[in-house]
Amino acid sequence: MSRRAWRRFLRSPRAEVLVAETGGRLLGDLLLLCRVDSRKARIYSLVVAPVARGQGLGEALVVAAEQAALARGCQAVSLEVRADNLAARGLYEKHGYRPLKVLPGYYDDGADGLRLLKPLPA
């Protein structure tokens, strides 16, 4: 994502930027978008630094995003993930995200995507 896009999201009242860091070093981030006219939040981006993978940071960011979505009154969280990203799909499935739609050729390189959805508890 470009610096310009990040600046726009950081200023937006409809975006939540969650970070995982230690000692001032950024290890991961998650961008959650919440539209005004929707009760569904969207995980737009989740990134964990290669050196920090396998430590549960992605999982912690997803849980925090779900809590942020609930606090905003959302009833569900959706996201798109590469169909061939088995690690990410496993993380989301572990947390109750289920396939909603196949997105053929969704990514720039032609890879397929999946739209996942998780209803949140009332």
Automatic annotation (TrEMBL):
Residues 1-121 form the N-acetyltransferase domain. It comes from the Bacteria. InterPro entries: Acyl_CoA_acyltransferase (IPR016181), Bact_Acetyltransf (IPR050832), GNAT_dom (IPR000182). CDD domains: NAT_SF (cd04301). PROSITE patterns: GNAT (PS51186). Pfam families: Acetyltransf_1 (PF00583). Keywords: Acyltransferase, Transferase. GO terms for molecular function: acyltransferase activity, transferring groups other than amino-acyl groups. Gene3D superfamilies: 3.40.630.30. SUPFAM superfamilies: Acyl-CoA N-acyltransferases (Nat). This is GNAT family N-acetyltransferase. It comes from Stagnimonas aquatica. The lineage of its organism: Bacteria, Pseudomonadati, Pseudomonadota, Gammaproteobacteria, Nevskiales.
